[in-house]
Design goal:
The protein is mainly α. It has five helices and no strands. Among the domains are: about 60 residues, no CATH class; about 35 residues. Helix content is about 60%, strand content about 0%. The chain is elongated, with a radius of gyration of 35 Å. It starts with 6 loop residues before the first helix and ends in a 30-residue tail after the last helix. The relative contact order is 0.03. GO terms for molecular function: protein transmembrane transporter activity. It is a single-pass membrane protein.
């Protein structure tokens, strides 16, 4: 319970206790506080046992720490029943982005110079693998537009 209290903090608490309660009443106060903490722990343990007994045998491994959302999510994500690890390993974001970039560059070069070969298009203004975001996109042909669906709007 008091795992994070250091020696300096403990000494400060003792000095403040001596100043507030006096050296005569301090031992009695420490006994009262420790007795109260012990009773609270016993009450908490008995309440946990009552809840476990009321839930039944199917909840025998139930831990109250699992009610904390962070602990619950961490526990559920550590179980790989859904095969999430396999999906994570099969998904390579860098490879996907490289494929998309290549496809955009090929499409850009085809739309800008449809009659020239790829060697002349690479020497005539290719940016070396980067996409120029300052260019305005080419206006699509009216024939390429998808049909208008009045029910979708």
């Amino acid at each position: 319970m008091f795992n994070d209290i250091g020696p300096l903090e403990l000494a400060t608490i003792v000095i403040v206790g001596v100043l507030v309660f006096g050296p005569d009443k301090l031992p009695k106060m420490i006994q009262d506080v420790s007795r109260t903490i012990r009773k609270i722990r016993e009450f908490s343990d008995s309440a946990k046992q009552d809840i476990r007994s009321e839930l039944g045998p199917e909840f025998k491994d139930f831990e109250f720490e699992d009610l904390n959302p962070k602990t619950f999510i961490r526990k559920q994500l550590s179980n790989d029943d859904l095969g999430l690890q396999e999906i994570r390993n099969g998904f390579d974001l860098k490879k996907e982005m490289a494929e998309i970039t290549d496809a955009v560059q090929v499409r850009e070069s085809e739309s800008s110079n449809p009659s020239s070969s790829s060697s002349s298009s690479s020497s005539s203004g290719s940016t070396g693998g980067t996409v120029d975001m300052t260019k305005k996109p080419a206006k699509p042909d009216p024939e390429d537009r998808p049909p208008f669906d009045i029910d979708a709007t």
